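Continuing the series of single-chain predictions for the mutant panel. This is the parent chain; the variants come on the following pages.
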Amino acid sequence: MKKKLTILFLVTDDWFFLMHRKALALAAQDAGFQVLVATAPGPKVKEIEGLGFTHYPLKMRRASRNPFREVVGLFDLVKLYRCLQPDIVHQVSIKPIIYGSLAAQIAGVPAVVNAVTGLGFVFIAGGRLKNILRSLVEAAYRFVGKRTGVRFLFENPDDLDHFLKKQIIASEKAVLILGSGVDVKRFKPQVSRPESESGTKKPVVLLAARLLWHKGIREFVEAARILLCKGVEAQFWLAGMPDSSNPAAVPVSRLLFWHRQGNIRWLGFQKDMPALYQQADVVCLPTRYREGIPVTLLEAAASGKPLVATDMPGCREIVRSGENGFLVVPGDISDLVAALEKLLLDVQLRDEFGLNGRRLVENGFSDKKVISDTFAVYKDLLREKWFNLEKS
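Parent structure:
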């Protein structure tokens, strides 16, 4: 019996795979691939297996800084790649790209796709140690990018330009695919504006993200305080949990303190994101993080919500200032306050921006477009194998 074409997705965390690569993996499965998924063990593994994917637990950990554990994680990957011999691997974010590319080269995996989902914490301005770490990461990217049969996918043009200007990879190995896509059938505008039992509702400003300081959590809380002190009628909701493995995680004690103060409402983890967006009137992300394209902004725009975000890589691709939202200066609370106030006081503007955002997502950011563009990369790398897959 002829062996099925196999694709292995390498992602550090099970939840990240489901949030960012589930639709792509399902499309690959429908196209005839046997889909394999390697992540660290976690509570979402059963859900991954329930989709018909074969899961392999990793010894690699996203937050590990232990040199011994890092070496063990790399050798574990080499063993896995040698055992599975996938036809193509799709590796997502820094550690999977660097370690996975080394393992693929040692194991003789012929086709490698590396998804750069933003430059992240390492590329935020910092001191001497941060600069050294950034140089080491760039050198590692440069080394693994030299082999044949590799493509780097970038979610925004700023990150792509950075790699090309620094000569980290050759231009023919770089592909721009905006974001990881959004399901426009699942995330869609509400039919009517929600109201409270009394028939009126204060507009809701929502920030939904991993709760890291670099996501602009402090700026959001301060903007909420200022606007409420000015007498602006609004609610400010914070959705998400701290990422305990990230050094920039906001402590739970701080979140509870803010919640008790009453200026913001901390909702914690939210499973039903479409329903949450339905309750929001404005979605805000004042990040200072080097995003790919933030999923929360894509989902909110698909849901017909106006956006306020910082003028940062990734954000500026989905937020067109004055069209479907406002871009503000990173870290500038007065700029953030002014943008939020303008939307909170103008229902018609919110509706207009929401419609524009929905059209923008439908035309350029749907999961179908992202899947099609990614399949074109697979086809380019697999060539004859892809031709045989299409014939089967």
